[in-house]
Amino acid sequence: MRIVHFDKDGVLGIAADGGSGWHGLAERENGFPGTLPDLITQGADLLRAGRDLLSMHAIDLDAVRILPPVPKPPKILCVGLNYDDHLAESGLKKPVYPEIFARFATSLIAHGEPIRMPRESTMLDYEAELAVVIGRGGRRIDRDKALDHVAGYSLFNDATIRDFQLRTPQWTMGKNFDGTGAFGPWLVTPDALPPGAHGLHIEGRLNGQVMQDSSIDKLIFSVPVLIEMISVAISLEPGDVIITGTPGGVGAARKPPVYMQAGDVFEVEIEGMGVLSNPIQRESHEEASP
């Protein structure tokens, strides 16, 4: 089941697709179950909600504005250096503990919205990633029960300002420029995918050219392992998002480096989940001004 969070003429809506097209409701219509972020926060049965939506009227996604599945997550926890092939191109040793850093909701954009290139840098890199949305919170979650805490999965482009990222050992600045965290287009419920999305093909394309080509089974720390290890220290909450890392092929590791430029389009595709597509746009003077 795919479930999308959208806006039409300033009114929020929700729609589901079980394989026969999108059907749903807007906030002011009878039977509206709540927005997707609200349902996730409430711990609702998303599969049941999605099935109920299938009997509602058709929704044309081209006629609405798609929003991130969770526009303002309580926490966005990202994992660095989590694919063997990306580790190899980085020339670093295999970690024994995941490299965790934070993103903030102010960096998030939706499918189709422009990733913004700031005026301070031309080193805007792409990172195709699997996103995991938490549906049931907890702390010290056992690995064998970790997937019970997942509301669903989505796609993410962890676009990074490389020179800012590497100015210090902490990656926060380079990972949090406004308009660089593309998230969506929708949430895929766990029943539609292998456990933990294991084995799915993941691909990143720049202007149609394949730059990243890998499999989620190459994760060094799998989805259940990440949930277990993160929750040792941090209580996970409904709506939290874990961004699981990017495979090899990033622009900074290429010779010569390849960075995204204004006018480019970057796509993230994960097998069975869909495509997240975003154009690249130079930040306007108004956006860049204080």
Q: Could you provide a short overview of the structure?
A:
By secondary structure, this protein is α+β, with helices and mostly antiparallel strands. The protein is built from six helices and 19 strands. This is Fumarylacetoacetate hydrolase family protein.
Keywords, separated by commas or semicolons:
single chain; 290 residues; alpha+beta; Fumarylacetoacetate hydrolase, domain 2; 2 domains; 5-stranded mixed β-sheet; 19 strands; 34% strand
At the fold tier of CATH, the topology name of the largest domain is Fumarylacetoacetate hydrolase, domain 2
Helix content: 10-25%
Secondary structure tally, helices: 6
Q: Based on the structure, what is the oligomeric state of the protein chains? A: single chain
Order of helices and strands: EEEHHEEEHEEEEEEEHEEEHEEEH
CATH H-level homologous superfamily name of the largest domain: Fumarylacetoacetase-like, C-terminal domain
What Rg is obtained from the alpha carbons, in whole angstroms?
Answer: 18 Å
Q: Given the C-alpha coordinates, what overall shape results?
A: globular
Return the structural class: alpha+beta
Query: Domains counted in the coordinates: how many?
Result: 2
